[in-house]
Design a protein that fits this description.
14 helices, mainly alpha
């Protein structure tokens, strides 16, 4: 596929896989937007292959997880080496990595999260959960920051980008507790479950008892989202606008989950078109004042991401 064909296919992928990210991506300048789509296509394909999904929908139990992981790894390493794979998502990664100088270590950190899923790993503690969230989403924030022009050596801005990825993943986990349970997965830390007296293999026996644990996830997501906003002064205006819009749109999912309580376990929570438009409008104003609204943070981070 030519670059133009890869971009067109990647655009179709993000439109199917995430209306929230698709809406925010249109705020980027054209070249940056295309690169964001290309990176998304690879991330989406990895997630779908690992979870037996189609663009993030219809998670199923899979019986060949190690084989899927081996294929993901081989195709990703080929793409990082500059080789054509003949598969759109991996050729998309090849192009965006070459154009942006994307560190290969970030992509490998991302695959490490899928290796955990392939091994049917479950977090024992909140610290382990955050390690996993970094691998499957925080490092995607770092990669997206590089796509936006952030230097791989700008650790402070990458920390903020990582925190936004953590916020997104924690909100995802909070929203998808019931869906994950149906596929035999549970990302609630084992010590939280033990403290609440909930058995991992009977997670949905009494949904009301899960509400405080889900609220802990959404509260943590909100903390990381608030911190992530302080990285936007380092970005060009349109990139900052897109990031702030995505933060608001996805953050609203977590806030809705928290508000719905047990009701969030019986429906897939999302944001409406009108809410997305409102978030985009609000983010425009925030992006214009980002240096004043979001000065550099002081003190230690909430969580220290792995360095390359």
């Amino acid at each position: 596929m030519t670059r133009a064909e890869l971009v067109a296919a990647a655009r179709a992928s993000i439109a199917r896989g995430s209306k929230s990210f698709a809406a925010a991506s249109h705020l980027f300048a054209p070249e940056m937007r295309e690169r964001a789509w290309l990176l998304y296509a690879w991330c989406r394909a990895c997630d779908d292959l690992a979870d037996g999904q189609d663009h993030g929908h219809g998670m199923t139990r899979i019986d060949d997880a190690p084989a899927r992981l081996a294929r993901l790894t081989a195709l990703t390493e080929a793409a990082l080496a500059g080789e054509e794979t003949g598969e759109m998502p991996f050729d998309a990664l090849r192009v965006v990595a070459a154009e942006t100088g994307l560190p290969a270590g970030f992509a490998r950190h991302h695959l490490a999260g899928f290796a955990r899923d392939a091994a049917e790993w479950r977090p024992a503690t909140e610290a382990e959960l955050l390690d996993y969230c970094y691998q499957v989403a925080g490092v995607v924030g770092c990669m997206m920051a590089v796509v936006m022009g952030v230097s791989p050596d700008d650790e402070t801005t990458l920390d903020r980008a990582c925190e936004l990825g953590l916020a997104f993943q924690l909100a995802n986990i909070a929203r998808d507790v019931a869906e994950d349970a149906g596929a035999g997965r549970c990302y609630l830390p084992g010590d939280w479950l033990a403290e609440a007296g909930i058995a991992r293999d009977a997670l949905l026996a009494d949904p009301a008892r899960l509400v405080p644990l889900v609220r802990r996830l959404t509260d943590s997501a909100a903390q990381f989202e608030a911190r992530a906003r302080h990285g936007t002064p380092a970005l060009p205006f349109r990139a900052a606008w897109a990031v702030l819009a995505a933060a608001r749109i996805y953050g609203d999912i977590g806030r809705k989950v928290a508000t719905l309580g047990a009701g969030a376990l019986t429906q897939r929570v999302s944001t409406s078109r009108g809410e997305k438009i409102g978030a985009i409008y609000s983010a425009w104003h925030q992006a214009r004042r980002r240096a004043r609204l979001y000065p550099p943070l002081e003190g230690p981070p909430l969580w220290a991401r792995p360095r390359l």
